[in-house]
Amino acid sequence: MLWYGAALALLAGRAIANSVTDGVTDPPAIVPGAYIVEYEVDQDTDALIDKLGGEASLRRDLRFKLFKGASIQVNNLEHAESVAAKVAEMPKVKRVFPVRKYAVPHHTVHSTGSAVEAIVSKRAAGGNDTFSTHLMTQVNKFRDNGITGKGIKIAVIDTGIDYLHPAMGGCFGPGCLVSYGADLVGDNFDGSNTPRPDGDPMDCQGHGTHVAGTIAAQDNNPYGIIGAAQGVELGAYRVFGCEGDTPNDVLIAAYNMAYEAGSDIITASIGGPSGWAEDPWAAVVTRIVENGVPCVVSAGNDGSAGIFYASTAANGRKVTAIASIDNWMTPTLLANASFSVDNKPGSDFGFTAGDPSAWGEVTKPLWIVSHDTTDPAHGCDPYPEDTPDLSGYIVLIRRGTCTFVQKATNAAAKGAKHIVFYNNQPGTVIVSATGVEGVTAVAMVTADQGEAWVRELEAGRQVVVTMTDPSRAGKFLIYAENTVSGGFLSDFTSWGPTYEVEVKPQIATPGGLILSTYPRALGSYGVLSGTSMACPLAAGVYALIMNVRGTKDPKTIENLLSATSKPNLFRFSGQSAPFLAPVPQQGAGLIQAWDAAHSTTLLSVSSLSFNDTEHFAPVQNFTVHNTGKTEVTYSLGHHGAATAYTFLDPSFTTPVPFPGILTQEYASLTFATGDRFTLPPGHRKIVSVRVQPPALDAKLLPVYSGYVTINGTDGSNLSLPYLGVVGNMRSAKVLDPARTYVRSSKTGAELPVPPNTTFVLPPAGFSNDTSYRNRTEMPRLNVQLTMGSAQIRAYVVPVGNTADGIARVSNPFGLNTIGLAEGFPAMWNPRGPSAFIWDGKLEHGEFAPAGKYRLVVKALRIFGNPENKEDYDEAQSVEFNIRYLSGGSAKLRRWKERCRDEVTAAEGVQKRSAIRIPTEDR
Ligand SMILES: *[C@@H]1O[C@H](CO)[C@@H](O)[C@H](O)[C@H]1NC(C)=O
Ligand SMILES: *[C@@H]1O[C@H](CO)[C@@H](O)[C@H](O)[C@H]1NC(C)=O
Ligand SMILES: *[C@@H]1O[C@H](CO)[C@@H](O)[C@H](O)[C@H]1NC(C)=O
Ligand SMILES: *[C@@H]1O[C@H](CO)[C@@H](O)[C@H](O)[C@H]1NC(C)=O
Ligand SMILES: *[C@@H]1O[C@H](CO)[C@@H](O)[C@H](O)[C@H]1NC(C)=O
Ligand SMILES: *[C@@H]1O[C@H](CO)[C@@H](O)[C@H](O)[C@H]1NC(C)=O
Ligand SMILES: *[C@@H]1O[C@H](CO)[C@@H](O)[C@H](O)[C@H]1NC(C)=O
């Protein structure tokens, strides 16, 4: 059975346009001229910098127990690639890779506010923990039994922590809740400028304080927020300034510092699209896990992109990727205001102020364009001709389909200054309508409140609303049951697996609609959504399990959590499906921490991958170990989860966006060793699982998945997630030739240039010189990957008699080429768009002479052999001409002298990785 078609997939795409977390995260940008150098063996970083004779300066010494290296900044960007090449050739250098930047993950801030007039959600009598996310995950049971993670150190790599917040301990340093850590970057760091570490990991963004509160918020708060592991010590490793991104050399340093400070657990709610465990940052995290410290990383918030969109560093091997589930409850922090109906005053309501929010002194009647409270696109069209002047009203608009800005623009066209949106989902969000001319204040109320007002208006009654200045209004918390999505996977949670069919994510925890601490300057408390909010709960659970079981071994704990987690049904658009959500979405399911802490049956793995058809590994083994005191008889079973097609039909090359195309045609499993066995105390047994994948169209790359169930007579119900792919990953096209083309660096148009266009380049070596900018135009190569590619190459191929007499570069494709364009090969690329501006420079450091060329782009397919030309997809640009402004002749002469030696393009591929220009023009 097929469930949901393309039409619904499209609808989901449109619905996303009006969510606060807009669109899919772009591939992480590269920092120009910045490289991470990993040493083969330890060496003196100063000596390395000296050897570069002033060509590069030190960004950061990265010499740690588990990583030896440095990051460098090439001083003259014109020489970036050649300096990187020089470093790569140095003895004792293992590899050189570009520095990439990661953003604070797109998360939704629903509402924030401090407790001026708190209506506190009371904990149940007896003081037991009834915090809803704890009830969902059994975390409450630890606290009720006095287990708080005492003695465990959790490092939080994030935006810092507002440690002066009373619920975060009120101080920083030994003896405090936030007892250790560092600020690696300083307030003014934006991801590109020079970090100024200042030792003070105070948070000015909010993200890190929210994350930290989920782990360890203390009871002294008015909203009943309870940290999962209140007894732990936190380490705050601050890697973001007040705005902007963080580069992976800073992340690598933070991880190693956290490891060396003796952290027992490291958590990071940071990531960017990747899909490759080989990503350098992910590889560092893997190494830390291999050295005994569990690392949990948020799975990513790109669920809308569909399957195969794993995020780094969560996609690292042995790294525990945490998916998000929506809270059973919808906490909402609202500002107090009032309204009257037909002059009967006195009803209170709450709102979440948006941006702008000049709501003080505003008392106006409500006006609404239509009374349909189910209209999915309410207010998306221009208002009718006969609409009155709306400046005397507060316009009420339902959320949905088009952007808030679009809706506000339509209202403003009829004079509206004040707009209140009502939600079409649980809770509220902070709406932005900045830049809409004439609009001075926006806000959101809950769906219930909005619908109640619509009823009054529909009945012909007048509703007059008296708003309040949100910065001064009393705030209160409402806690409604989340009947829409509570307990189900959050729509935004990113889907795995990796391109090499490794199971991602591992486990899920609540991350949708989470109430936690927020910096005092930003309201002290906030309700946020994201896998960022899920990950810290998992970190807290690791601490609790360490307390109970006395082990800190990452593998043991991950295996326990995976085996005891509860898979849930798939849900989309308010409906739950009659089948389990695919393993690539939920991993093992919602963690059950108490069961994990007390399970006496241990499995030797946390998941199984049967790989794809080409690399089919149909038999997988795992061990069942009875560590209990009694004999247990186990029965094995199988529960299929939805199979998810990667492609809609064979002509499509991009994976189907959320919610995808799902079917209930499952794999079948057989247990060669029998499906029932008895283990005396202390005994183990190897279980051999043989899979028969579903007979489905291999061209569509269906990803099947499900759970091996292991029920014991001791009452245990364990399940082990598995997945596999029908078809060959190698058969999937990775490059879209129609969207891979040369355009102009200058005009904004996303269109290929006409054939025979002439680009006038800056003199060789002066492409970054602003004095030439007005007079030059460079080819910009847009590359569109439909699936991840481990390697992209762009060859420069002369046309006609261009570059005659210049040596050709050998390549597997038999191309008549003078080399790769600088910036290639680009390694470990996520799917999606990327852009490279070409100033005529070649990968080996010389410049292409003036003349006519085309660029031939080759992208390696998944599991492709880099030496095998059949394993690449190709796209060709039109022929275009380049010439240089005068000034660069010296370099061109040098080229002519040196080009006699043939250069092998494939050389250095193992050691080097490419520089990539951020998508915006330089
Ligand atoms: C190159 O140009 C960028 C953008 O204009 C500028 O930020 C950077 O400092 C320049 N670098 C060099 C080495 O000239
Ligand atoms: C609180 O939790 C403890 C331990 O689970 C339990 O024994 C006790 O009955 C609970 N108290 C209430 C009031 O629910
Ligand atoms: C699938 O097989 C390929 C080729 O042997 C291997 O590189 C990859 O790691 C395998 N994936 C898993 C999850 O075992
Ligand atoms: C799985 O176990 C069986 C015996 O139980 C053994 O013959 C086989 O080699 C094992 N396979 C793997 C991949 O370890
Ligand atoms: C194991 O227990 C679960 C939950 O009680 C049940 O759904 C499943 O059918 C059981 N499996 C076997 C093989 O008994
Ligand atoms: C291509 O452009 C060059 C330089 O502008 C011009 O001399 C030539 O005639 C053009 N060729 C064609 C086929 O349009
Ligand atoms: C380049 O453009 C800027 C503004 O666009 C202008 O002020 C400047 O004079 C121009 N320079 C040249 C050399 O044309």
UniProtKB/TrEMBL annotation:
Keywords: Cell wall, Hydrolase, Protease, Secreted, Serine protease, Signal. Residues 149-565 form the Peptidase S8/S53 domain. InterPro entries: C5a/SBT2-like_Fn3, PA_dom_sf, PA_domain, Peptidase_S8/S53_dom, Peptidase_S8/S53_dom_sf, Peptidase_S8_Asp-AS, Peptidase_S8_His-AS, Peptidase_S8_Ser-AS. Residues 1-17 form the signal peptide. The keyword Secreted applies. Pfam families: fn3_5 (PF06280), PA (PF02225), Peptidase_S8 (PF00082). Residues 609-723 form the C5a peptidase/Subtilisin-like protease SBT2-like Fn3-like domain. The active site is at D158, H207, S532. Residues 369-452 form the PA domain. Belongs to the peptidase S8 family. This is Minor extracellular protease vpr.
